[in-house]
């Protein structure tokens, strides 16, 4: 392949042993797949190809290996192919010439040999020994012919990816795409499909400069790998048109003569200089998928100029790519296959919602439909285009899993979605207006996610910190982005430039004990508490503070009229349905009361103002994502106990009990020293998943991750490629 440079070993190990292992395990545990014809292989690409009238296949003078992104598919995964640089077919005379074309009866030809009116003689470019004795018969009777071939090359049949349903090549390469972005962590492409158009090969590239072995970064990287695998498996504008009905027939009707062509397919060109619609030599292809898969909507001021439900494309379909322009698409496009429709209505709690909105602004301004959910309504969801800093960890919704179900390629276990909490997980149960209306209209936000002026601050959705409003004023904005009377808009195109709370103040993190109080950093008038158990609440609570050496700092009531986001400690009940709220009192804490419902007001004797309660679910729920745990996502219940032995140089051991992970329910129950070099560790789990022993494995260049123990119908093998051009 290409010149090899050693990857940073710790990054290789991170990606191979943890990141991809868990991402693969997650999808393998969630999905069942309709089996592809096995083993998985791709076709070599012929060059200099032509076809005689009697040929069914193309004859080619050369061949190339297919690529997947920048990766050339290794021979092992390719089907056999024969190419010949010299090819010569029949020539005719006399009675074999009918209507200016040669009609040979191969049966007669074989009988009469050179006496027949068809003959093979060396001609320019033909093999010199071209004769019936050396020629290859193609077909028979009048439909057949004899063909001579010379200087041929036979590429052998590769063994393919055996026993796998998807084969993914993983690279850690500082590619051009990586170098062109400060934030790109990984990207993926799929290549090659099975007999039902399901993708069977893919490449994922991780940008090395964005990879980190820091434990804090791990979940985000795993989420990214799960996201990229979803692109390879199903979630792509290249795949939507290939979705199948439950009986395996294509959702979009195919051409009767060539099933690779779609009904209503057009090709178009698109570049920075403009687009040319219905160009048969175009660099892009498009199928009008509505009404079965997608629909377009004119809402929030958009006026769809794209060919969805129409036969023409207007230039307005595409937006000018990149700064300094505001990216201004013309369409709102939604995915509306049955399971997606049902789940997205439930997600937003909007029974009339017509589908799940796709992102309409991405890096490439030439796409008519895109390969992510709309960031404005699905921020932090797995298939949103960008991870959302300071909002909440990436989560997997049932809406994304529904896309797998509706592809017709997979059965998806929708209960493998992450548990969601209204108010915490962006958009969840936020209603029809949130899903369809402008995020901010006339200066009024549609929900507490959004804001309208620079000096606004609020609690983060997960209530662990205080966030500021990300907004800037422009001289003028297009009507669709007219959110405030003073032309305030957010900075992110993917959010439709919606101003929202995302500016983090490093000294206003409730869970960080080094944070400082408001409105004055030196006097804790609002009785704030910063601790691991602190959460953010809107409050006007205030009290005078005694001064050292006598006297008090006066908390003036007029300074505490408006709610501020402040931090107080919470103690949740075991059922999570209420929590006690504690505020600072001198160097200690004092309970204010119990919050059991949203917007309940608490007061404190001797202090002015009130604290507004948050819904107990927002404060007391475990908000960690499950999908990062690989196949250990399942909810806790009784599980097996596993023991394994490890080697230690310790001379004595103490029995202990440690919970390794509350979420996966894995508990280290015993630690037994036997002798001086062997210790037995006993693990028990309350999760349904089977515990597997983890051990250090020697890594081999093409190591298929062992998927044993999982349903055979959902095996995904991952191969990490080391031999690549540049490793950082
Ligand atoms: Zn993506």
UniProtKB/TrEMBL annotation:
The keyword Lyase does not apply. GO terms for biological process: cell adhesion; proteolysis. Zn(2+) binds at residues 227, 231, 372. One of its GO terms (cellular component) is cytoplasm. The keyword Metal-binding applies. InterPro entries: Peptidase_M8. The active site is at 228. GO terms for molecular function: metal ion binding; metalloendopeptidase activity. It holds the Pfam family Peptidase_M8. Keywords: Hydrolase, Metal-binding, Metalloprotease, Protease, Zinc. Its cofactor is Zn(2+). Gene3D superfamilies: 3.10.170.20, Leishmanolysin , domain 2 (3.90.132.10), Leishmanolysin domain 3 (2.10.55.10). Binds 1 zinc ion per subunit. PANTHER family: LEISHMANOLYSIN-LIKE PEPTIDASE (PTHR10942:SF0). Belongs to the peptidase M8 family. This is Leishmanolysin-like peptidase. It comes from Symbiodinium pilosum.
